[in-house]
């Protein structure tokens, strides 16, 4: 014998609400009027019979007899004698053969009337049998059921309408249930081609509250399309039963025989509990081995809270109120709804359970807090005097004082969604935190094989998209460089730029004209010269040629020096770039060795970079030598014997020119007056010609600021610039496309996750509440702000003015398809084009930065975007955000730890609660324990809470906390619900039935 439970444990189970128990509602007792296989119904037989029932796992029995309640009354008598303290429920079941037939072979349909034992007195039952007439007539009068004898039990029938009329005269509607057989001698044998049979079958279906049958008929009777006339049929429960007629048949009570499966009913062990299955046929009845929650309760005991205990510490004298004393709240393994008036302590229970469950939402507590804005129970003198104890089904216990902090080192054992947390998420403008919460739920649907050791959605995203983001970064660098060139080319293509060049060219041409005009009148060489004068003249001519050569060599040296310095810069840059590449590759290799060590590969064999800078170094050294030689300072002393052909450096060439110029000046001083005038003329012409030459420049290699260079630039504007600009635009478009494609690779990651949850989202969508998920590109909510940060909106242009500019931008954005590159690029080009006509530089604070912003495509991102009714998260109201978050946690979260929700309905409308949330809660409690704090009946009753915990806080009498627990069908709990909860009309109609209010 197992040890009997303690009275405290028994009371605890009674308070746990509706629980899954085995019921057998069709069971014949010894002495049954037909086919009795028990033998003689003597004392021994009866004691054996009730002993088998008492020892069975079945907790409720429908004791059945044909046209009689004798079996029930005798069972109750013997049960009370043998087991006066038994908690098992015995229900009278009257089996009747109906006059109506539906099958081809003419077999009658059997139906059953189950009556509430609370009103099933011998007198009431006798009256019912005495009122109900059979079809058998004797002496011109129909026999009543109470008048039947053993000779006519097998033949008697009754009309279902007579059954209904007799029941109405004896019992209230809530005191009986009509259950019709759906298998043998039942409705499923209806003649398929007989309209009469189908019509009778539908009528019997409408009259019946439930059916006896096999599990394969459950779906049929839960459907809403059973009737021949296409009218809507109500879902109704189906029970299997042993239909035992002998002790051998009682072996069926185990449910092990395939043709006689166990019937599990989730309800109070009362007739009211049985009636609850009429209102919740799908969720309150299970035919088979064991309901899933019982299997989980056994195998996953660490995921179920058994009870919460709260008591004052021994040293507490009660000076700050009674508060919590001897509190022991048992929790149902499915849905517990905590109800109560405002300030009754509902949130206190949720906070305490969450504290003991190591929630990560402690900063959002509304009861266990001492914040400046909300000084509640954690202020000095209160929480420190009480301890909480959370007992899990596994037997593990967590206990701590109520002013303790959450143990951050221990794993989170519960998921808590407090009211304050809801408000912070749903009122958040940028919805980043809300999106992270939803992404974590989505992450739970990623196959473990696809998670790649990532701990969160963000980690997986980073890992999956790292290469694409690095690629995009490199493209953006090229794009910024190209934007600089494009702006330069655009500036050069402006008419003003060409006009400016032409003006500069005109200035130079005028300078040339002026120089030409400044040439002195031609001076003829003197005719007669002495030998000395002739020699001096020839010397000056020779020295002048030498001076011109030195000047030409200097120009050449300067040109070479420029080329060498450019070469040196490029070679040095190349060398640095190669060294940087080498360093980067080496660094990446070290990272790879750590990151991919699990692959068992030799990274050095996979990645090999050969760097040989010998040629580059030689080049740099040689160029450096050339530069040094050209820039070498002059230390030469020049005289007539100096070999000027060997002078090479620029300083030396300039010193040599000075030496020659001085010699020319000395020689000229010895000339006659006519010779000097002539030499001055020659010198002036030479100097002016050189100046003109410097201004005009050389066409093959024009120097900056010369006529040749300006003419070349103007010619380029006329001939080449349009092509260069067009090519630059094409290059920019190609870079933008590469950026888009890089982003598209990231979007592919989101697209892969989309399929993980979209089927479940489809299942929860209903009416106006259509939840969809889209792996697509979406613009940043800050796009408008960032766009206008680049503009001067007080300047004339398409976006002038705050309000007008915003409307203009919104109009352009309204036609953008963010998943189409062509659409996005057209939008960008349209913006730039519309601003160019009014001077884009005037309208922008920095046109280069504006171009970088627009063409970098940084203002939209691939995103796993949730949509509700076609709106994304940023467009949803706080209530819609809250509903969406709840749907995700209730319907999609794969975490099996208990879920505690504190008053989520405050920002939700009743229609949403009733239509969507209640259904999601029903789904959630199939896979996890749910504790719901609420004041809305659409949640507590609409979701068919297995347990209602009604709490009170008597503030007048020392803040004494009290509570009452029970099932919806419990009369006492019913009273609490009706007093505390209120809701919309559809919810009230549903509640009226569930409350069994007539």
Strand composition percent: 5-15%
Question: How many structural domains are formed by the residues?
Answer: 4
Whole-number mean pLDDT:
86
Major sheet strand order: 9-8-7-4-3-2-1-10-11
Notes on the protein architecture:
Residues 325-949 form the RecF/RecN/SMC N-terminal domain. Pfam families: SMC_N. This is RecF/RecN/SMC N-terminal domain-containing protein. Residues 472-518, 606-633 form a coiled coil. Keywords: Coiled coil. By secondary structure, the chain is α/β, with parallel strands linked by helices. The chain has 4 domains: 7-290, Metal-dependent hydrolases (TIM Barrel), CATH 3.20.20; 299-428 and 877-994, 3-Layer(aba) Sandwich (Rossmann fold), CATH 3.40.50.300; 457-490 and 733-874, no CATH class; 492-573 and 603-719, no CATH class. Helices cover 48% and strands 15% of the residues. The protein contains 32 helices and 26 strands. A 9-stranded mixed β-sheet has the order 9-8-7-4-3-2-1-10-11, with helices on both faces. A 6-stranded mixed β-sheet has the order 19-23-24-14-25-26, with helices on both faces. The chain has a 4-stranded antiparallel β-sheet with strand order 13-12-17-18, with helices on one face. The longest helix is centred in the middle third of the chain and has 65 residues, at 531-595. The model has no long low-confidence stretch (mean pLDDT 86).
